[in-house]
Amino acid sequence: MGLDHESLVITNKPDGYYVQLRRAEKADKGGEEKILFETKLKGNEVYLKVNINEPNGLCQFSYSENGKSFIKAGDVFQAKPGKWIGAKVGLYSISTAKAPRGGYADFDWFRITKN
Asked: Which residue range is the domain that position 29 belongs to?
C-alpha cells in the first residue's frame, strides 16, 4: 500500500455485512488504519465504485446495493504515489489472524472506464 492509503471494505460481523471506508496516514511510520465511515448492508450483494479525477488524483468512494443509486462513503481522498508501488485499485479477499480459515468472496466483474 501507499504511505497514505484509503480503501472501501466489506466486512462480515455477527449481525451482517458492513461497508467501511478505512484510511491509514503515514503507514510507513506505523500509522494505523482508521474507520472513517461504516454502514450496515441490507443484503449480501453490493457494488463498489471509486471516481478518480484527472489529473489531480482526487478519489471519491461510493457504494450501492442495487447498482443504480450510489451513496458516497466519506470525503474525497487525495491519491499519492507510494515508495515503490504508486497508486492502485483492485479487489481482494483476506481474513484477520484471529478469523477461522476457509472464507471466500465472489466477485462477478471488475470494470475500469474513462468518463
From this structure: 5-78
